[in-house]
Amino acid sequence: MNSWLVLITDGLEESGQKILRSSCKVDDRKGISADELIQIIGNYDALIVRSRTKVTADVLARADKLKVIGRAGVGVDNIDLASASARQITVVNAPQSTTIAVAEHTIAMMVALARNLTQADASMKNGQWLKSQLMGSELYGKTFGLIGVGNIGTQVAHRAAAFGMTVLGYDPYLDNEQIQKRGAQPVTLSDLFVRSDYISVHVPLNPETRNMLDGQAFSAMKRGVRIICTARGGVIDETALLQALESGQVAGAALDVFAVEPPGLTALVAHPHVIATPHIAAQTVEAQARAAVDIAEEILAALEGKPLRWKVV
Fold this sequence. Notes:
- By secondary structure, this protein is of the alpha/beta class.
- It has two domains: about 5-95 and about 285-305, NAD(P)-binding Rossmann-like Domain (Rossmann fold); about 100-275, NAD(P)-binding Rossmann-like Domain (Rossmann fold).
- Helices cover about 35% and strands about 15% of the residues.
- It contains 13 helices and twelve strands.
- It is elongated.
């Protein structure tokens, strides 16, 4: 066995830890605080995080031995990539592990919006029978707009098409032929806004995408549109969304992610036309097992100097 030390800060399924323990010493410190992380990070060759841990420039400045950071999932916005690159620390993720789980959650959110499922359940638990007040709408024949047609967006497109929906796709990193092959009709973002009854966001959070759905964007959309976001908090301007909900420009929203997490009982979370879930789109038994295995294998490959499948920097 090598003398590599691997630190896990947000938990990792046993299947992944078993792979790591075959070649490394593993220290599982789930829930470690930011201050504690800075104090001990200098001892480790590898670090594995999920979305909770923030791998800041201050953390990396103390990471004298660190060779690789692994994100057990997709988004890496909680890792200071510029600082990691400057210190020649490799960053890898597991971009395919949670694809199905997030796609299924997206569709579940859409169905819940269309059929008022959360309101119906809450009313029944309050002893009410609001049958006539909870008129829903069918998904069949509606237009579904995808912002981002990557791994997750592609799976969402296939599932939306199965409902008989027209699927539109916008992705500046793909050409029209690629978008078509992924199950969507390529359109401009403005065309997607005008035509879509439902809009689902599947883009990473970066300077280009932060607040991409702002007041101007909501104003350009079809009145009564419904918004779904299982991507990253910060992609949607939450103040602008609340205003659009209050005006009726947006008929409903289903949000799994928020600019600040946990958000608390904000006006947006409490809004009667908002379905809010606590960043659980990727939280399935199957997805977490895949993520653990994928990131463990990628961490070992990085430590051993082998080719990497999912190198970010």
